[in-house]
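Section 4.2 – Deliverable D4.2 (structural model, holo form)

The reporting period included a commitment to supply a predicted holo structure for the target in complex with adenosine-5'-triphosphate. Inputs used:
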Amino acid sequence: MDRESVMSAPPKSQSLFQVFLRLRPAQGMASERFLAVEEPDTKHTTPKHITLNPPNDRRRAIEKFAFTQVFEEDATQLDVFHCIGVASLVECVLAPHGGEGTDALLATLGVTGSGKTHTILGSRSQRGLTQLALDVVFRSIGRNILDCSSHPTLEQTISASDASEGAIFSASAFLDSVYADPAAPLRASSRAPTPMIGESYGPAATPARRLHRPSAFPQQPDVSSLSVSSDPSSEYAVVVSMYEVYNDRIFDLLTPPIKSATTKEYRRRPLLFKSTETSPDRKVVAGLRKVLCGSLHQALMVLEAGLHERRVAGTGSNSVSSRSHGFFCVEVKKRAKGNRRNGVENPWTGSTLTIVDLAGSERARDAKTAGTTLAEAGKINESLMYLGQCLQMQSDAANKDKPNLVPFRQCKLTELLFSNSFPSASSYSTAKHRNPQKAVMIVTADPQGDYNATSQILRYSALAREVTVPRIPSITQTIHTAPVSIPAPQQCSSPVGSPPLHNRPFFSPGSAAGPYSQPFSSNVQRTFSPGSSPGSDDHRTTMEVAALEIARLSEELDYLRQAFDSERSARQEAESHLLSMEDRMLELEQAIREDCVTEFERRLEIEMSRWRANMQVEVERGEEHWGRKIEVFERSMAATATAPNDENMLDNESESENKENVLMEDINEENERLRRDNDILRRELACMSPSKRMPLQERGSDASTGSRTKGGDPGSPRPGRKLNFNPDESGLRRKLENLRVSDDSASLRNSSGSTSPKKVRKLATKRWDANADDDDMF
Ligand SMILES: Nc1ncnc2c1ncn2[C@@H]1O[C@H](COP(=O)(O)OP(=O)(O)OP(=O)(O)O)[C@@H](O)[C@H]1O
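Output (structure tokens):
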């Protein structure tokens, strides 16, 4: 099956991308050039093939790649614009012959710093393919374009027909919200580095800061003479939207970031790529902000605003390196001219030209990236690896009867690029069938840049590849021939461009073990040295096998190096995340500890003050009690001294002795009880460690419950009774009652010094001094 028949075959076997190669001119100190462009053969006028000569490594295979066309260093933006057929892509979108248009995709792919952004977005003096394509779109639609200012319902009708549930804005409203006063000083055009960390925005990039309106855009190259056909019976509206894929998530570039309530940082909300109610068979980026542009100038202003929000950073490989895959979408909406039918507006249909500036693959070692930028690079490399696999598969599918499934769901980038390129199951069943999108990929390369990274990109993006194994001199030859000259690599035995070129050994289809597990097979050209004798065939074969193995291993090594880079960056990302989590945990632990200490000290202080107050009450109570005792004793002594006559003397003496005995008895009892209480208090004080004590409330209730359950008087002292520290007044009073001397002494106190004779009992006499020790306790 030749290439033409492959391309015209039904969608299942269609190659999705035309692939062009653009070489970047040398800048600064040029190192050794490893890429050579082959002269076109007689049938072609433009070069299509390049050769990659591994620098300083004669053991590595020489690779030859075929592209739709190769643009050399001197090719201008206009050359690229014309040759890749941007005008025909625009024409497909405009659908000049009626009906729905065809979606078109234009993307750049390459190593970092190889010129992708230059090609797509141009520079301060040169327009890129995006600006040129927009120019052609507006020029071609001409007067058939509808504008919000002249058609007030335009916004509303477009919004109603929009499948992506986007928010439609008129250009004037959007630009007024983004740009400062038109009279404000001018800002140079083209993107500026945005100081963003992760997905948050630093103070310099807050939405409060409005941009300065660019006064003029570059006018070169000029395409004013170029316009393509549009449908004269239709009227058009142009809707522009922009988003980026950063760390595998989609962010709208035209929606301002929102300030987070918790972190106070400005953040964008990631969007979903999904099927909606109005587009069940097609995935769309849902919820995008879209701007209705009535002129080229408005569209360029929107582009400028979106580019300002795109993530870029300076790396060791490129001073303004794109850190995300940027998508710029020009939706051309179209409807039949004329009056409404039955009062209903004619329906809008539409096709989209999507222009993609992919972030470049990079090696951490060369780019000297670290932290967030290194983690970004890991994600970029990973998504580009998946893109490479998809390109490989779709190309293999184009050359086989039984197509392989393109694994485009592995990351957001490939989902966005491929998921709508194939007819969905539902669109097979329904009559409505969209034309498959037309896609052009421009691979950019620096012929003096990073050989390994360039070779890797070319391997999976080229339309075809051939490998020439270098001839390695035999050992005998080396010994017997002196001096030894390094033989030049053999040329391919078949010219590049012949039908088998569509085979690509890298990322072999159906290889479950990964891209590096498949040895070279189909298109390795075995080369034979013309000077070798037939007798050395065995040896030569062995050497060739060894050379093949070396080539395979070096390729495997390249892949592993790349995988290692991305793994390392992922690990570093995880490690930095872990570290920040550990810091957070330490902070939390510290805060909790401080809270605990404060709470503990507060409670301790409360306990101490309660304890001090109780002690004070006890001391006062004891003093009062002994005061009364002494008073009673003094009174009784005075009564004895003032006895009226001798006859009663004996009686009085005996009565006084009895009273004294009773008093001593009471005092002894009271002493006994107070000693017990005192012991209890001492014991309690001894074990009064704040951490071991129950909360006061609990203990208070325990004590009271305990005395109730024993059925006795809660106020009567018992061995083992706990002190009640209940802070409320009634508890305190109860406790004081418990500590009262006795009923007798209470009655003594109540009668204010008049001892009642009824309560006097005769008991064995006890010596006062025998109890003197008891007093020491107070
Ligand atoms: N064809 C060209 N002619 C002149 N200058 C070029 C060309 N291609 C690239 N450059 C210059 O090379 C530098 C790097 O180019 P650019 O930023 O486009 O690289 P990139 O591939 O987009 O890198 P990254 O992936 O890191 O964003 C820029 O200064 C750019 O102006």
